[in-house]
Amino acid sequence: MEAVRWGILSTARINAAVIPPLRDSPESEVVAVASRTQDRADTYARQWRIPRWYGSYEALLEDPDVEAIYISLPNGPHVEWSIRCLEAGKHVLCEKPLTRFPGEVERAFDAADGAGLLLMEAFMYRQHPQTVRLVELVRGGVVGEPCLIRASFSFQIEDGNVRLDPELAGGALMDVGCYCVSGSRLLAGEPERASAHQVLGPSGVDLRLVGTLVFPGEVVAQIDCAFDLPLRQSLEVFGSEGSLRVVWPWNVRVAGIELRRGNTVEHVEVAEVDAYRLQSDNFSRAIRGVEAPLLGRADAVGQARAIDSLYRSAEVGGEPMQL
Ligand SMILES: NC(=O)c1ccc[n+]([C@@H]2O[C@H](COP(=O)([O-])OP(=O)(O)OC[C@H]3O[C@@H](n4cnc5c(N)ncnc54)[C@H](OP(=O)(O)O)[C@@H]3O)[C@@H](O)[C@H]2O)c1
Q1: Of 96, 100, 128, 185, catalytic
Q2: Among 1, 60, 89, 197, which lies 20 to 30 A Cα-Cα from 244?
Q3: How far does the centroid of ligand 1 lie from the alpha carbon of residue 181, in Å?
């Protein structure tokens, strides 16, 4: 397959996880990067040995050689720039979360469909064999009927981080809780009710949020996320016959799943792979029509519905919201 020519929109920190696998893969090449300032673009392109660089995002969109754009902006402008890229004829892999608003997700995917291009929300953990194996185990019935899911993600952030800015759609649920929502939905389907409690920081975004999602059949997910607790992540599924626990479900530092049944604990081995590589290879192959993109409109709409319902509940003191 002919390598897909990628452009990188912004010089965000997360690019350090995404650029190396794009460069290492025969299915992609990084041809350009854009920053808001020319100085930053110059320095960044030199540092990462990127052949072309632009001091505005608009200039990247005008580069006819760029086929796909990876958007690593803060959350707030994700939809606006996804649509601008799509209207400029580029496929878009946009960082999570696309937005908390389902109507905005629809607008972005309408732009993709209208242009005959692909748009995908970058939930890289979904590509990891650990996630695939977890779903197989649950669907295969190893824990019986799943009834309770617990999903967590927290880490501590420094003052001035874009994640604290309400204008840029910051907040713990947006940034890390979105993984907990995604993992719960992957295992249990689309939630019917949502409730949440949030602790707001001085800037007005949620520093901590604890939520409940209720799925068909009264399967319940408890999710928690925070910016004011040390790094901690986990995903657990409890069923009538046992439980499964993943210690690093989101940015998989050590792969593996623990299965408990009765008094036995079994370790399910999973290959250590780079989920960012799987993600960009999946998207490049999808662009060439070799395989389907793993994530599309339905998943992104489901994500936004659940996130928005949790926020709406938290905003009114935890009253349950119907989805
Ligand atoms: N999938 C993952 O594993 C993962 C991990 C971390 C983050 N993320 C996601 O990736 C995105 C970026 O996160 P990050 O922590 O890497 O961001 P970051 O380092 O703070 O960088 C964001 C970049 O966006 C550009 N930008 C445009 N408007 C901005 C504004 N008003 N304020 C600040 N920067 C602005 C800047 O690039 P220029 O100055 O070059 O224009 C900046 O370098 C977020 O959506 C986050 O949720 C995903």
Answers
A1: 96
A2: 197
A3: 21
